[in-house]
Write a structure and sequence with these properties.
flat, two-stranded antiparallel ribbon, 11% strand, alpha+beta
Length: 64
């Protein structure tokens, strides 16, 4: 479901722009998993290191 939703979001003209957090966070060798060291122990969301990567990758000008 995650990949289907991301594909729809990425190809949709409904949005002004997107920030692809999935592409930033997923393990290139195991696309259903977070990159090693970026997820919480519950494997559900980013840890502090993952949040830092997201913060550094977002162009703040997109939000103005």
């Amino acid at each position: 479901m995650r990949t289907s939703l991301n594909a729809w979001i990425g190809s949709s003209t409904f949005f002004d722009g997107i920030i692809d957090l999935d592409a930033m966070m997923r393990d290139p060798e195991h696309s259903a998993s977070f990159r090693p060291g970026l997820d919480t122990d519950k494997k559900f969301g980013p840890n502090v290191a993952g949040e830092q990567i997201i913060a550094e990758a977002i162009n703040i000008e997109l939000l103005r």
